[in-house]
Amino acid sequence: MIFLKGYKGKVQIHCQSLYDADLTKTDVVFTFLLNGPMKKLENKLFTELPTGAKIISYLFSIPNRTPIKKIDGIIVYQV
After folding, report:
1. pTM (2 d.p.)
2. Looking at the 3D structure of the chain, how many domains does it have?
3. By three-state DSSP, how is residue 71 classified?
């Protein structure tokens, strides 16, 4: 999809554990995690991600955080 939409060379995708990843230069994080892991990662996401970064989750929300948008099971947060 990245290639087809003309984003080749502009986007980097990393498939790895969020627990170990360095998120300091990340613009967007996509997750599909159950409530337990979401709660465990909440602090890491909101402290390591730069201001303005987006967290996009499918179906499972981040406890104690208010999303900026919810559409058809997609939940978007902004740091």
Report:
1. 0.80
2. 1
3. strand
